[in-house]
Specification:
Layout (H helix, E strand, L loop, with lengths): L8 H4 L8 H7 L3 H26 L3 H9 L4 H32 L9 H35 L8 H23 L24 H29 L12 H33 L12 H35 L6 H14 L15 H13 L1 H15 L8 H23 L2 H7 L3 H31 L5 H27 L15 H30 L41 H7 L16 E4 L3 H19 L2 H19 L5 E4 L1 H17 L22
Helix pairs in contact: 2-3, 3-7, 5-6, 5-7, 5-18, 6-7, 6-8, 6-10, 6-16, 7-8, 7-20, 8-9, 8-20, 9-10, 9-11, 10-13, 10-16, 11-13, 14-16, 14-17, 16-17, 17-18, 20-21
Length: 699
C-alpha cells in the first residue's frame, strides 16, 4: 500500500500527491504503476472526450431533458444497461490482466505487484456483481416489465430514477478509485478483519464500502418498485397466472432484493463504524466477531446469486417459447419452480463458509439444502427442452445463447453438487475450482441471459434489429472464450492451485494457465464484437427497421405496440383474456384484431422529468467521496444538498403533464396505418432485411 503524506488536511483530508496514479508512475515507473496510470488517464480522457463531443454537437440540453432527468421507465432501463456495458468493459480488461499476470508469473514475479493484483481481483468481482450484473438485470426489468403487464410506467417513477442515480453514483466511485487513491485488496466480499483499519488503513476499503452501500440502497429501492408495479399496476384481467414468465421472475427477483439487500447494507455500515469510529463489531478483540459479518454478507450473497439468475431464467423462457414457435411447456411448474428457488435461496448461505468451523451437523443440513435447490432448477431445464421438442426452432442469436446456456449451466450444476458436499468443499474451497464453478454458473446463467434479452428486445427499444452476422461472431467468442478461460481452472483447482494467486511456483500449471489466458483474450474479442455489432447496426439501421413492432412473432404485450414504444406505452390500456392475449388474437380469426383501432381515446397523464433525482444520486456519491477521504465539509454540504432536493421535490407542483387524447389518437392511428402497410414475412426470414416488424400468420 502506497504511503501518502496528506497535502492539506484541513481541506483535502487524507489526500496527498502520491494518491494520484500519475505521480506514483512518475516516481516509480514500474510496469504495474504505468498500467495503473494508464487506466486513470483513460477515465479522465474518456470523460473529456464525451464532454467535448456533447459540446461539439450541441447535445447537452437534449441529453439532460430527454434522458438524464427522464422518469420514463424505458429510458431509465436503457441507462441502466449502458452503465452495465461500460462497467463490463472495465471488469473484462481487468480479468485479462489477471490472467496474463498468472500466465507469466510462473516462477517469475510477473508484471503486476501483489498489491495491484489484489486490487484487480477486488474491483473485478465487485464490478461484475454490483455494477454490471445488477444494473443489467435491473435495466432489463425496468424496460420490459411494465410493457408485459400492460402498465404505463413503474409504480414509483421518481424513486426509480433515484435508484438509477444511486447506482450511477456508486459506479462513479469505482471509476474514481482509478484516478484518486487505490481500491480495496479485500476481494468482492470485503471480509474483516483484513478490511479493518488495522490491516487496511488506506482508502481502498472505504471506496468499496461506500460504493457497495450506495448500490445496495439503490437495488433495495428498485426491488420495492418492481414488486409494487407487479402487485398494483397489472392490466385489467391479468391475473398472476396469466403473466409472462419474465414478469414472474422479475417479481421473485424483486422480493429477493427487498429481503437480501438490507443485510449487505447493514454489514457494510457496521464495517464502516468499525473503521471510522472504532467500534468492534468484526474485530479480533473487544467482543468483535468476524463470523457475524460472514453470516450477514452471505445472507445477502446467496440470494444474490438467484437475484442474478432468475431474470435470466425469465429471458430464456421468453426466448425459447418464441423461437420454438410453441407455448411454454409446463408454465405452472415453471412458476412453482421460480418461487421455490426464491424461498430456498435463503436457506443455503452457510455453504459459502463450510471451512469456517461450524459443526458437522450444521454443514450437513446446509449441504442437503444446497442439493435440494438444484431440483427446481432442473425442472426449468426440462421444461425448456420440452418446449423446443417438436417445435419449429429458429436459431436466431437469442436462441443460440439460450441453447449454450442450457448445455453449459448443467455442467456447472454438476460441480455445484460436488461443492455441496462439505468434505469435498473443504478440499477445494480456496482453489480455482471454486472460481471455475462460480463463473460456470454466472456467465451462462446471467451474462448469456442478459445478452439474449439484449438481442431479443433491442428492436423493441430502438426500432431496428441488431446485425445478425456480428451477433453470431460475438456469440461464438463468448462461448469458446468461456470454455477456454474457465474449464482449465477446474483442473488447476483440483490440482491445488489457490485462488487470488499473484505468483505461481508450480511449473506443471503452465499449459493450463496459457489456455486460460487465451480464453480471456477470446472473451475480450467477444465484447469487442458486441461493440462492432452495435456500430454496424446503427450504421445500417435503415435496412433493419421494425417499427411495426413485432419482428419475432412475439407472445407478450410488449410486442403489441410500436417499436420504439410511445412514452405512455399503450394508447389504450389492454384488457387481458388469456395468458398470451396478443399472440392468441393474432393467430385466431375468431379473436378481436390486435391492430384494430380502439373505440375511443383518453387523455394520458405521464410524469415530468425531474432533476432532483439526479442531484440526490450524485450528491450521495459526493458525500461518500468526502467520507472516503475524510473531507468532512464536503460530506456535510452534500448531505444538505440531498435533504434540500427531497424537500424541494415534496413542495414541487406541476410534476405531471397530460398528453391530449387527440395527440394520442394521431400517433396511434399513424402507427396502425404503417402496420397495415407493412408486408408480413414468414418466420424463416425474420433475420433478413425484409423483416419490417410484422410476422406472417400461419394457421
Amino acid at each position: 500500500m502506497t504511503v501518502s503524506v496528506p497535502l492539506w488536511p484541513a481541506v483535502l483530508g487524507r489526500f496527498g500527491w502520491q494518491d494520484l496514479p500519475f505521480v506514483r508512475a512518475w516516481e516509480n515507473p514500474t510496469i504495474s504503476e504505468i498500467i495503473g496510470a494508464f487506466a486513470g488517464a483513460l477515465v479522465v480522457v474518456g470523460a473529456i472526450v464525451v464532454a467535448a463531443l456533447l459540446t461539439r454537437y450541441g447535445k447537452w440540453r437534449y441529453l439532460w431533458t430527454e434522458w438524464l432527468t427522464s422518469l420514463d421507465h424505458k429510458k431509465i432501463g436503457i441507462m441502466y444497461i449502458v452503465v452495465a456495458f461500460v462497467m463490463l468493459s472495465r471488469a473484462l480488461v481487468e480479468a485479462v490482466l489477471m490472467r496474463m499476470q498468472q500466465a507469466v508469473a510462473i516462477e517469475n514475479p510477473g508484471f503486476l505487484s501483489p498489491d495491484h493484483f489484489g486490487q484487480l481481483f477486488s474491483t473485478h468481482g465487485s464490478i461484475m456483481i454490483f455494477f454490471m450484473a445488477m444494473p443489467f438485470l435491473t435495466g432489463m426489468i425496468n424496460y420490459v416489465l411494465p410493457l408485459q403487464i400492460g402498465a404505463r410506467d413503474m409504480a414509483f417513477p421518481w424513486a426509480n430514477s433515484i435508484a438509477l442515480w444511486l447506482t450511477i453514483g456508486a459506479a462513479g466511485l469505482m471509476m474514481a478509485s482509478l484516478v484518486v487513491g487505490e481500491f480495496s485488496t479485500g476481494g468482492w466480499s470485503g471480509y474483516p478483519p483484513y478490511t479493518e483499519r488495522a490491516f487496511s488503513p488506506g482508502v481502498g476499503v472505504d471506496y468499496w464500502i461506500w460504493a457497495v452501500t450506495l448500490g445496495s440502497i439503490g437495488s433495495t429501492m428498485a426491488g420495492i418498485n418492481i414488486a409494487c408495479t407487479v402487485y398494483k399496476l397489472r392490466a385489467s384481467g391479468m391475473r398472476f397466472m396469466r403473466m409472462q414468465m419474465f414478469a414472474w421472475t422479475s417479481l421473485c427477483t424483486s422480493i429477493l432484493m427487498i429481503f437480501a439487500m438490507p443485510p449487505l447494507t447493514v454489514a457494510t455500515l457496521l464495517l464502516a463504524l468499525d473503521r471510522y469510529l472504532g467500534f468492534h463489531f468484526f474485530t479480533n478483540d473487544l467482543g468483535g466477531n468476524m463470523m457475524n459479518y460472514a453470516n450477514m454478507f452471505w445472507l445477502f450473497g446467496h440470494p444474490e446469486v438467484y437475484i442474478l439468475i432468475l431474470p435470466a431464467f425469465g429471458v430464456y423462457s421468453e426466448v425459447v417459447s418464441t423461437f420454438s414457435t410453441k407455448d411454454l411447456y409446463g408454465y405452472t411448474s415453471l412458476v412453482i419452480a421460480t418461487m421455490a428457488i426464491a424461498v430456498l435461496s435463503f436457506t443455503v448461505w452457510v455453504h459459502h463458509f463450510f471451512t469456517m468451523g461450524q459443526s458437522a451437523n450444521v454443514n450437513a443440513a446446509f449441504g442437503i439444502a444446497t442439493m435440494t435447490i438444484g431440483v427446481p432448477t432442473g425442472v426449468k431445464i426440462y421444461d425448456w427442452i420440452w418446449t423446443m421438442f417438436r417445435g419449429e426452432v429458429r436459431f436466431a442469436v437469442p436462441m443460440l445463447y439460450a441453447i449454450a446456456f442450457m448445455m453449459t449451466f448443467v455442467l456447472g450444476g454438476f460441480t455445484g453438487i460436488i461443492l455441496a458436499m462439505p468434505p469435498l468443499d473443504y478440499l477445494v474451497h480456496n482453489t480455482l475450482f471454486l472460481v471455475a464453478h462460480f463463473h460456470n454458473m454466472l456467465i451462462p446463467g446471467l451474462l448469456y441471459g442478459m445478452l439474449a434479452g439484449y438481442h431479443y428486445w433491442f428492436p423493441k427499444a430502438f426500432g431496428f434489429r441488431l446485425d445478425e452476422r456480428w451477433g453470431r461472431i460475438a456469440f461464438t467468442c463468448w462461448v469458446v472464450g468461456f470454455y477456454l478461460a474457465f474449464f482449465p481452472l477446474y483442473v488447476l483447482g483440483a490440482s491445488g492451485m489457490a485462488r487470488r494467486t499473484q505468483a505461481i511456483f508450480e511449473p506443471s500449471f503452465r499449459p493450463w494457465l496459457y489456455v486460460a489466458g487465451v480464453g480471456a483474450f477470446v472473451l475480450l474479442a467477444a465484447l469487442t464484437s458486441l461493440g462492432i455489432q452495435l456500430w454496424v447496426s446503427i450504421r445500417d439501421r435503415a435496412k433493419t427497421r421494425v417499427e411495426a413492432g413485432d419482428p419475432w412473432d412475439g407472445r407478450g404485450l410488449e410486442w403489441s405496440v410500436s417499436a420504439p414504444p410511445p412514452e405512455y406505452n399503450f394508447a389504450v390500456l389492454p384488457l387481458i383474456d388469456g395468458r398470451n392475449p396478443f399472440y392468441d388474437h393474432k393467430h385466431d380469426e375468431d379473436q378481436p384484431d390486435p391492430y384494430a383501432s380502439p373505440a375511443a381515446y383518453e387523455d394520458i397523464v405521464v410524469p415530468r422529468g425531474s432533476a432532483t433525482s439526479v442531484v440526490i444520486g450524485l450528491a450521495a456519491a459526493v458525500a461518500a467521496f468526502g467520507l472516503i477521504w475524510e473531507i468532512w465539509g464536503l460530506t456535510i454540504v452534500a448531505l444538505q444538498v440531498i435533504v434540500a432536493a427531497v424537500v424541494l421535490r415534496s413542495f414541487g407542483r406541476d410534476q405531471h403533464r397530460t398528453i391530449p387524447a387527440a395527440e394520442v389518437a394521431r400517433e396511434h392511428e399513424a402507427w396502425l396505418a404503417r402496420v397495415r402497410a407493412t408486408p408480413a414475412i414468414p418466420r424463416q426470414l425474420e433475420t433478413a432485411a425484409v423483416n419490417r416488424g410484422l410476422a406472417e400468420i400461419v394457421a
